[in-house]
Amino acid sequence: MRETDLLVVGAGAAGLSAASEAAKHGLAVTVLDDNLLPGGQYFRRLPTGYHHTHETVFDKERQRANALYATTGQKGITYLNDAVVWESPENGVLAFARGADSGRIRAKLTIIASGAHDRPAPFPGWTLPGVVTAGGLQNLLKGQRVIPGRRAIVAGNGPLVLLVGATLARAGAELREVVEAAPILKRLAGSIADLIAMPKIVRQAVDYRLAIMKSGARLRTGWTVIEARGADELEEVVLAPIDATGKVDRSRARAVKADLLVVGFGLMPSIELVRLLDCKLEWKPLRGGWVPVRGADFETSRPGVLAVGDGAGIGGVEMALREGKLAGVIAAERLGKLSRDQAANLKAPIQAEIAKVETFRRGLERLYAMPPAFLDLLTPETIVCRCEDVTAGELRARQDAGFGSTAALKGTTRTTMGRCQGRNCLRTLSALIAQASGQPIEQVTMPRPRLPARLVTIGDLLQEELPPIEMPKDPHLPRGERVS
Ligand SMILES: Cc1cc2nc3c(=O)[nH]c(=O)nc-3n(C[C@H](O)[C@H](O)[C@H](O)COP(=O)(O)OP(=O)(O)OC[C@H]3O[C@@H](n4cnc5c(N)ncnc54)[C@H](O)[C@@H]3O)c2cc1C
Known about the structure:
Elements: E1 2-9, H1 13-24, E2 29-32, H2 62-70, E3 77-80, E4 84-90, E5 93-97, E6 103-112, E7 116-118, E8 131-133, H3 134-144, E9 151-156, H4 159-171, E10 174-180, H5 184-195, H6 199-214, E11 218-221, E12 223-229, E13 236-241, E14 254-257, E15 260-264, E16 267-269, H7 272-276, E17 281-284, E18 289-292, E19 305-307, H8 317-334, H9 340-368, E20 383-385, E21 390-391, H10 392-400, H11 406-413, H12 426-437, H13 458-461
Parallel strand pairs: 1-2, 1-6, 2-3, 6-19, 8-15, 9-10, 9-15, 10-11
Antiparallel strand pairs: 4-5, 5-6, 7-16, 12-13, 13-14, 17-18, 20-21
The structure holds flavin-adenine dinucleotide.
């Protein structure tokens, strides 16, 4: 079995910052990441072999990105790409799938920096070709330079909406509408004092807004998408305002022709690994939902396992970079490479920066707090579990028939059991159960975490190191019983 001082899962902003800092202080660090190239989501790059002819809007972060990519070649760091961490067979050991190089790794300390995924928001038509998530679109733009349509509408809730709108406009799409569900213009005055803690990001947001306005697209706040229509693919999008009580006002709905709808209702932390490690979770809706409980040094309830970045609660790239760096110092101190005083000196400026980002984040949360009543968009035909094609009507009928718990609905409909393993449907399933039972969503039981934490191939599993098989001498005796 391989051994390392520090194991980092995730080569995004948080994971690479942690690895770089820890290696700088003399730790042997191994970084595992399931992508082919380092960078995670924010610093996603073009695949090897793509030819880059000129600077584009995606190169504005090139300097920071290159510094982060270079981390993978830094002394003391072993970087394993295309490595899916899928099991923890024993305390301090993680198993990863990497073709013929699959294996297990024992670490003195582990940092989980697993990032996030798009928060699903079902509404009629959300599974039509031409409807994509905000994160998915950013991946296509950054990782392939592809716009999957021409006439575009962006709708959702949160800072990614403005960013995606501006990026599409700059990338040459015919942007029609950008629709933010929260009434952010009305709330701006109440948030500005916190937002100016990060003036660079405020300037960026103003730039995004200007790019959208310049494109001729209409920018609406306090509106939402309520339906995507089309025979075989997206043809038009129905938008409607949200009233002061959080209800959609269908009387003022309007349809807009489009062949690309980008939907972004925020992100959710990827918590498969911390669940697999049996770390305690807490419900923080403003940080994306379920997040690992962490102490001041980012340690989860599982000793020796730290969690940082979006995987520990959505905080954005600036937070992820700083949390990662701080975790690197914490790891070096914990494993004896830095004295308490040396570590304290290094931690202080990073903690001060984190406090600033935290202030900014609180401002953002107030600005974008999601209006309620999104379950009202579901019609009986709306698909909730897109892997297993389970509709809201089917789930509600099962609930009426007495199958009210997560386990009962999962067992009778296969919701959460498909390829996405619940990433796209668990949140809606929990919301439906909460609505029917009158419980708060955080009291709805989650399904038990199952192996593998991420999809792996059978070929990868065949590489697993298994203990020698114990065969009885007499094959008719039960296993383990031997003829003396
Ligand atoms: C799809 C998507 C697109 C986004 N695009 C933007 C954007 O354009 N602009 C912006 O400001 N913010 C964007 N965000 C938010 C931004 O990416 C994050 O704030 C930032 O990247 C967080 O850094 P991180 O290191 O915590 O996570 P990430 O950058 O997401 O890195 C986590 C890494 O861990 C890997 N990983 C997770 N689980 C495992 C496992 N079991 N085994 C192996 N590897 C694993 C992931 O594949 C990923 O490479 C996006 C988020 C998502 C989900």
